Amino acid sequence: MxxxxxxxxxxxxxxxxxxxxxxQVGQWLLFDATATAEVDLDKMERALEVLKIKVKxxxxxxxxxxxxxxxYANMGKPKKxxxxxxxxxxLNSENKKVKNQLQKLKNNAAEKVRSGDI
Length: 118
Description:
Layout (H helix, E strand, L loop, with lengths): L1 H10 L7 H15 L7 H17 L4 H13 L3 H14 L4 H20 L3
Helix pairs in contact: 2-3, 2-4, 3-4, 4-5, 5-6
């Protein structure tokens, strides 16, 4: 974001990175982090940071919330994933993919409680 801040200062108007660019970078980092047998935790954290920026810059984007939720789910953080899937559904209640992902996480959490894993 420093690049966009410098340009914004020079032009006297706020410029933001396109949502699609933030999504592409975050998704690529997630994919790259899991492309080998050993997960690259540094890349996972960088992907998470990019997707957090996306949510900060585009707080009313259901896609931004969904992308961040997907990242948390991939990182094994179901509570954070559920939180952002819920926010995504508040912004777009018709998103079937998010509904399905959220239900899977809730079912997994319920199964862990029943089996005594929690």
